[in-house]
Amino acid sequence: MEDRELILSLLPKAGRKSRPPLAQPPLPRHSADELWAEFGIRLAELGGRIGTREDAEVILARPHILDHESAEILGLHSGGEPIWDAEVGVTTADLAIAETGSLILATGPHRTRLVSLCPVLHLVLVPKDRIVATMAEAFTRLSDRTTVMITGPSRTADIEGILVRGVHGPGDIVVVPL
Amino acid sequence: MPKGKKPSVEAFARGVTAETTKSVRAASKSKTESRIPTLEIAFHDVEGARTQAAQIKEFVLDNISSLLVQLEAKCKMNGIQVHWAKDAESARNLIARLCEEAAPVGSTIVKAKSMATEEIHLNEHLIEKGYEVVETDLGEYVIQIDHDTPSHLVTPIIHKNKRQVAESFSREGLGPYTESPEELAAQARRHLRDRFKEAKIGISGINFAIAQSGRLVLVENEGNNRLSTTAPDTHIAVMGLEKILPSEGDLPLFLRLLAGSATGQRMTVYVHMISGPRRKDENDGPSNVHLVILDNGRTKVLNGPYREILRCIRCGACLNVCPVYRQVSGHAYGHVYSGPLGAVLAPALEGVEQLPDVAKASTLCGSCEEVCPVKIPIPRMLLQLREEAVRKGVLKEPIPWSMFVFGATSGLRWRTGLKLLPMSKMAQHPMKNGWTEFRDLPEKQGRDFRKWWNGRS
Amino acid sequence: MNHVPSNSRGTLTFVSSKAEIGEDLRSLNPIGGKQRVRLMLTCLVDSFFGEVGIASVRVLEHAGCEVLFDKDQTCCGQPPFNSGDWTAARQAAGFTMRALLEHPEPVVAPSGSCSAMVREGYPMLYEGMHHPLVFELSEFLVHQLKISEWKVTVKTLPARRKIALHRACHGRAIGLKDEQAMLVSSLPWIEMMEFGQQEQCCGFGGAFCATHNSISAGIGMEKLHNIVDSGAEEIVSGDMGCLLHLNGLIKRHKIPLRTRHFAELLAEGIA
Ligand code: SF4
Prior knowledge:
The complex is a heterotrimer. The termini of chain A are far apart. Chain A has five helices and twelve strands. Chain A has helices spanning 2-10, 32-46, 53-59, 68-74, 135-139, and strands at 49-50, 64-66, 79-80, 88-92, 95-97, 102-106, 121-126, 131-132, 147-150, 155-156, 164-165, 172-177. Chain A is globular, with a radius of gyration of 20 Å. Chain B has helices at residues 9-13, 18-42, 46-62, 64-78, 88-102, 115-119, 122-128, 138-145, 162-171, 181-198, 224-230, 251-263, 298-302, 317-321, 323-328, 339-350, 367-371, 378-391, 401-408, 411-420, 432-436, 449-456; strands at residues 81-85, 108-111, 132-135, 201-204, 208-210, 215-220, 234-240, 244-245, 270-274, 288-294. Chain C has two domains: 13-144, 3-Layer(aba) Sandwich (Rossmann fold); 161-268, Rossmann fold. The termini of chain C are far apart. Chains in contact: A-B, B-C. Chains B and C meet through helix 1, helix 2, helix 15, helix 17 and helix 18 of B and helix 2, helix 3, helix 4, helix 5 and helix 9 of C. Strand 9 of chain A pairs antiparallel with strand 9 of chain B. Iron/sulfur cluster (SF4) binds next to helix 14 of chain B.
């Protein structure tokens, strides 16, 4: 604890200033369909896409791993390939964010974080009502568990600033609103 | 780079190849060009957003002591083990101990890109201890196999082109020679997958630590950061003590400012918000999460004239826009922190005696302050650092300003000097060689103002 | 930290902040009478570019001002200030304050850099000092005199030509935006060319250009290449520092470009 006490003693004494308020822009009122349309545009800009249930079935012909909840939605058994070998990882999302095309995935009972990360394609099934307009709105509803916000496919521009998708995480992302 | 023997920025610049300058300029420009349009979409009022972010960071610095205690308490409640390190050595020893507790010497440690661990030279230390340390960010991986150092906060191999990366990869046997960035990235992905599978420990930095909830926030585009902090059984995160945000409600503002300022993206691909080790009912994730809170000079900075530099969120926008950085690249600054940010932060952390000249490597054009998402007055602090260095006598000033001022504090002496000016071409002047190496000397052009003025009245 | 020298306190015309500068002016100048201004010539114009000073006077008079010139002015002290020698800078600043600022009239300088030094630099040299009432020329014309279009009175217009306007960086420190561009683009014989990396610094940086000469020259050459590529024949700027440096490179490399201060362009339109 020595370093702790030392550092705390060196820090400037607590200021009494109250924190600056966050300007909250008024929440736009949109229907879920409008929000999904916006979401689709943003996702496409990033190289992801919106799919249908039929698309999902085609994708599932490839070696895949399904998490618990997505299996339930599709009426299938969860599991599949070992996580490091699956080409497709199928999960649900807790929320979709229209303004940025982002998805919120919290950990939770029986959830496996790596399903959304290791495969080359991430198939995401999202109940239609789980969409919000803004990130600010989404962040008021965060679960207290470890959570990831995913915005588009994995990418890098480390080599000469040239965009490459799928460097470590999935290079493809297909979102199916259901 | 060893301390003390660092060449001056100008001396280093003379060895920078045209190829390097070309790479750095091109990448810097493209990031700068996409910055404004992205931010304008994200915020109705970009200026207002920057002001707000600056105010929130100021609040953090004002209340840093109580926020850190709050963060510590919340992290502990979340099951994150919190450690404090007063300096680089203390941090290295602490992290080595945590590694020894987590996995036998010889095990693989995967690293996600982190400036804090670069700052404390962690890799060398852990390798010395016998661990296999693997950088997993594509750029950082290239840096590691080339025994190089990062030249940019966000894009560490900005000074290299694809041919150089291709040569390194084929030398290391990652696959057949290719200059296609896609192929190169695929080779890295294949190679590093095995490392992730076998790794026992993952080490990362953090971007934000939320005091109110004890959550650690990491942002990245590739996915290696998530892999490094998810696959191994132990995760060690290192943060500079200023990296706090008061609440989760602050994240949308900061995440968007960071993504837009850094790379012109609307949002970074992965925002990983870690609330502790894996819980019993969860299928994966590390069972131990450690947070190391690092001082290493920061308390000194907080109490001094360069305090505002600790608002920095490491977006790199000031580097991207800086004409000097674009010309010389990051290595010229001789420190892990380069560019305008580094020219202030490095001497502020280490003392102006250690790095007396980096603050001089600036034209004071002000573009850094103009782009900074937290409005850090970088030019003002560069001036203050110059003043400190001259006052303390650690920087030899080549120009005898007292002589100049002798002439500039009397109208008569000044006017006499003006008359002698045409003859000064012959005279030696401390600035002359610096001027004439690349330029012709200026000559008086057109009419003389004072003669004209006197003539009309 | 040093305080404002007592011998120059009290009589100085200081305003409290950047934002209020515009407001204070009206009370200083009786409406109806001629606006009186003091010219801050700047040391570079004094030493090398007399025509810029002459043009500045003509421009201000054409805009309806009465111009005063104090012969004892020298240099604002920015060179030692930027080099870190603040003891020397304070001596030059103290002298400049007595020569230029102890008067009721606003001071106008044909330089963003020197205006910034006095307005933003002096308060760093003297704790508690307010920002002095000094204006850059285009700032003064546009914001104080509300001129957005230059009134051309010459009978025969000068020959058409293409120019590149380099926005000098120190204007940032005093919040200059497109004032110079606005005035210059209202001259019918001038075609303003867009060029690559238009916003980037030219690499001058005061003493930097001699102490970091290879970097400075590298940045300068990039600027010149971009300007040549644009098809411009002339570089126009509001700061002679930039032009001094660029001109040195132009001559050394025999680049087909001329350099001019924007005040000289405005003066071309005055009969
Ligand atoms: S100083 Fe500002 S612009 Fe530079 S890296 Fe830090 S936050 Fe970004």
